[in-house]
Design goal:
By secondary structure, this protein is of the alpha/beta class. The protein has a single domain, classed as D-Maltodextrin-Binding Protein, domain 2 (3-Layer(aba) Sandwich), CATH 3.40.190.10. The strands form two sheets. It has a five-stranded mixed β-sheet, with helices on both faces. β2 and β3 form a beta hairpin.
Length: 139
């Protein structure tokens, strides 16, 4: 039984390493040339507009995709991010990024909104029009 548990765990862990995450924006919007520091600033609430377009950031709900994005781009854990936003909202106000748990909802929001930005597993982007990948994050 123990061997089966170990094999299942190793299989699951190896599948997590295979996930490739991409940061996406609306291909007709003003965010198509963002740098990594700009993406970080958006998710930390420091950059809220690009020109006269309001930026709308979307986070994944809890899980490995969000964890990889936070570690790679924000250089913090999910817990640190929640604490950051709790403090920021209390001290300065503002609006934290939306949270969605369905990649298709994130993709559709970004596709329809010129100032939108989100991140999803690359495999979820098959034949999607209206989206531009601006950053590729491999585990």
């Amino acid at each position: 039984m123990r061997l089966i548990f170990i094999l299942v765990f190793l299989l699951f862990a190896s599948n997590l390493h295979a996930v490739e995450i991409v940061v996406i924006v609306n291909e007709a919007g003003p965010l198509v040339n963002l740098s990594a520091p700009n993406i970080r600033d958006i998710y930390l609430g420091e950059k809220r507009f690009e020109g006269d377009i309001k930026i709308s950031a979307t986070n994944y709900s809890e899980g490995p995709i969000k964890d990889v994005f936070f570690t790679a781009v924000l250089k913090m854990t999910s817990k640190e991010y929640r604490l950051y936003w709790t403090k920021k909202l209390f001290q300065a106000g503002g609006t934290a990024p939306m949270v969605m748990n369905n990649p298709q909802n994130i993709i559709e929001t970004v596709r329809k909104t010129k100032g939108a930005i989100g991140y999803v597993a690359k495999e979820d982007l098959k034949d999607i029009k209206g989206i531009k990948i601006i950053k590729d994050i491999s585990q």
